[in-house]
Structure formats: C-alpha cells, structure tokens
Amino acid sequence: MIRAASGDELEQLVLRYGDDPRRGVQRALAAALHRSEELAVEQDRLDGLYGTIDAAASNAVIIGIDEVGRGAIAGPLYVAAVVLPPRPRLPGLDDSKRLSARQRQSLATMITDVAIAIGLSSVEASEIDRIGMSAALRLAISTALSHIELEPDLVLLDGNRLGIHPKERAIISGDSLEAPIAAASIIAKVTRDELMVEVARSHPEYSFESNKGYASPEHIAALQLHGATDMHRKSFLTNILSGQERLF
C-alpha cells in the first residue's frame, strides 16, 4: 500500500504508520516520501517550462525554435520549430543535451503526437561553406518558421536575438527554460542524429554514428588519415587538415 500510494493517500498512510516500529514499514515510508518529493520538484519544473504558454491567451500561437549542429564539422545544420498545447504536460521534457538518446527518442514521439505544429529545416555542409554559418542559421530558422502554417503571437528563440521575426523573443538557455524551445531542441537533435547514423553506413571510417559529425578525437584522426568527405564542412577544417592536399 505504501509503495503504491501518492498524494493524499500517502499523507494518510504517513499519519497512520509514522510511529510503526517495523523497519520495513519505515523504509517503505521513507522511499515513498522521497519519491513524492521528487515528483513535486518535477511538477514545479514542468510548470516553469510551460509558464509562458500558461500565461498567454488560450488560442495564442507560441513557436519555440532551436538548432542542432552549429558546432559540428560534418553534417547539416538542423532547425526545428514547435508549437505545443498547454496540456498535456510532457513528463521529462528538457533541453535535449540533458537527456539520454533513449529519453530523447521517447520524448520526440510524444512531441510529435501532441504538437499543434512542427516545422523542420536543414542546411547542408556545402551550403554552410558557401554562405557561412550565420547566414545558414538565419536561412534554416526562416524556413522552419515557414513550415508552420499558423500566424505566431510569439516566437521563442534559444540564444541571441536575430531579428528574423517581428514577434521574436530570444532567451539565453531557452531550451531549459521554455517548453516549446525544449521540444524543438529534441526534434532537431533526434532528426539530425538519425541522419548521421544513416550516413555512417556509407562512411564507416569516420564513426559518424557516435560523434554525429562533431570533432571527437577519433573523428579528427580519421580526417587526418582519410581526408574530408562531401559531408564535411570544408571551411571548418583549415586548422585540422592544414597542408593535406586531398582535403578538397
């Protein structure tokens, strides 16, 4: 009974068995109370994540935007735009960087199931080389926004203001503070990671399935041995592969 109890039922059991001398009963009470405290903390965290949505009008369209892959040396840049409803709350929703791959995958499924709208865009490595990362980021965000067929009341952007939308609000560390941005970070991360795992089948020597295109020691060693592929951002590799003619 104690293990399964929560809320008011647990409070009643604590009153009834708080002085019970049996060690098993006391261990069960301690574990149940600890679990209840953890659930309360998580509920408070979720309430904070959904605070902007809750404070807005019931029909307000709040778009969260985040990118993945800006610091990679291979693979595309991905941007996701997500509109979430106030309910249901998504348990465990958080910045994608704080989650395991399994948690991200599970949450991506839940986000896809409940989201009002999702927009996704990418910019390939060759285009990043051509126009630069700043322009690539702006292009990806604009494209992801264009895939949301709703007029936004607020556009929440992780990081610094870019001036892409008149209703834009930039929030430093927004992926851990705002539910729509957290959801966007998860969708972008899961989508890009799946692509890099697929690309790894064609280029197994670079271990894309594990490094996802970032500059891990193994990835750098493979670059120095094999040179760059068409998935690599050549403009990012000058210092890594200086003097290697086969880079281009």
Write the layout of secondary structure elements.
Elements: H1 7-17, H2 23-49, H3 51-55, E1 62-68, E2 77-83, H4 101-114, E3 117-123, H5 125-131, H6 133-146, E4 154-158, E5 168-171, H7 179-200, H8 208-211, H9 217-226
Parallel strand pairs: 1-4, 4-5
Antiparallel strand pairs: 1-2, 2-3
Walk me through what this model shows.
- By secondary structure, the protein is of the alpha/beta class.
- Helices cover 46% and strands 12% of the residues.
- The protein has nine helices and five strands; from the N terminus they run H-H-H-E-E-H-E-H-H-E-E-H-H-H.
- The chain has helices at residues 7-17, 23-49, 51-55, 101-114, 125-131, 133-146, 179-200, 208-211, 217-226, and strands at 62-68, 77-83, 117-123, 154-158, 168-171.
